[in-house]
Amino acid sequence: MRQSSAQLRGVGLFGGTFDPVHIGHLRTALELKNALALAEMRLMPSAQPPHRAPPQASPKQRMAMLQLGLAGEPGLVADDRELRRDGPSYTVDSLIELRREIGPEVPLCLCIGMDALLTINQWHRWRELTDFAHLVVAVRPGWHLPDSGEVRDFVDGHRIRQTGELQTTAAGGLLIREMTLLPISATGIRQALQRGESIRYLVPDGIIDYINQNQLY
Ligand code: ATP
To answer: Is the pLDDT of residue 1 over 70?
Structure first.
């Protein structure tokens, strides 16, 4: 059943390098937006991800591809705040900014993958993330949390089990949600292009045209 806009509340934030954005990201963002009954889901490209090699496409190109991917889906919105900011892209800074914009009452859900959760203790000011947002962790069925350690303690300290709880408070919860994530990665897409293989149906057609026109990857 489609949700009426009156039932939708809160903002989701889905960060990534998006080099390029692909249907794994887009489908997950849409499913999470609907499952959490959020009014909007923002996809936010990182300018200088602190924990990985620099992206190959420029910020402008990654943003252009993201906008092509989101065209026609009004609930999914591109958010370029990290591309406009100098220095490394720290998620906590983006949450602080967004919280200031939406006010203290509106639920804000930072959506990450289980891979990111396992190393979240390497993020800048990581324990403060839940001061400004809920964390929603998308995982494949059959995943395992670490048995012990500070990430496990963090999860146990914030964990909520019911999706509806995300709507009753603005921040502070951590929800782990099993999802069938499509087995697609931007790395695999860049490698396929380098080998001269087709990436049709892995990214929207408009993005393929953009990659070809701009001779990316
Ligand atoms: P790369 O291969 O360059 O590392 P990626 O495809 O993993 O890229 P990122 O931009 O690094 O994509 O990831 C952004 C976010 O999207 C992360 O939270 C990651 O967990 C999630 N993600 C990556 N691939 C998928 C997928 N196939 N389905 C759902 N979420 C994904």
So the answer is: no
